Amino acid sequence: MDKIPGQKRAVQYLYPAVDPFDQRMLPVEGGHTLYVEQCGNPKGQPVIVLHGGPGGGCSPAMRRYFDPQAYRVVLFDQRGCGRSRPHASVTHNTTWDLVADIERIREALEIDEAVVFGGSWGATLALVYAISHPDRVRQLVLRGVFLMTRAELKWFYGGGAGQFWPEPWARFADMIPENERDDLIAAYHKRLFSGDFATETRYAQAWSAWENALASVYSNGHGGEAPGDYARAFARLENHYFINDGFLDEDGWILKNVHRLADTPGVIVQGRYDMICPPRRAWELAQNWPGADLRMIRNAGHALSEPGISAELVRVMDDLAATIA
Fold this sequence. Notes:
Layout: H1 7-10, E1 22-27, E2 33-40, E3 45-50, E4 71-76, H2 95-108, E5 114-119, H3 121-132, E6 137-143, H4 150-157, H5 166-173, H6 184-192, H7 197-213, H8 228-243, H9 253-257, E7 266-271, H10 279-288, E8 292-297, H11 307-324
Parallel strand pairs: 3-4, 3-5, 5-6, 6-7, 7-8
Antiparallel strand pairs: 1-2, 2-4
Helix pairs in contact: 2-3, 5-7, 6-8, 7-8
């Protein structure tokens, strides 16, 4: 939490960490087993937390955005990452598998309706789930909106963000021969799924470092080297989803179907200087979703731990708890 200047200040907004009251491994379709945990108040308002990536996994820090007296917090590691098994597997691993997994978890935990909280890819998944099951979502709380469009992928992997961050972009692109740099997602795909563990890990760490370097507005352009095991799952899963356009039926699917959220309220917390998921998409989403409350956070980038974003997310959840009470 304190590796980037300013991140220490975010801690003051967060609730103390609480231990899970329930941890389980839940078998789902396709040979996967998901790690699922619950913390907070067993009788509180259910909130399902969707982590980013794909492939990021959940962490204890994600519990700290919720008043443990008010919320029954459900976190899980999506297919192929974190403590879910098989690790780094892309078999039977699509957006629609994850939507089915959320339903499986909801039913197993006997939750009728929940607040759904997600950032970055977690926001994507939250939107797809809510569009598919609007009757199961009480409220959406989204951060760092990613709509899984080709334009967003072109921005981040086609040189757009690299115009602002040329040093980390050069480190990322220079891993690939010049004749393959016109499609870095495809070029990395070939190496991340080469079948050679050392090669996969090396390119996974480069893939992860590019994203990590741009996560915070306080970044110096160096995201650090992620542990090999984590990076391999993160990079393989992200790349698998991105090369398949998120497994959505058409480009722009979320905006074309957001009308299904006409009766679902939501809050969007967006960093004004988010280099990974530019604010334009959050604004477009809010323009097409009458129930959305868009809150642009100045002097903030993409990371969940940005001080302004942390403070606003806690405020949103506290206000929601007061209305529920």
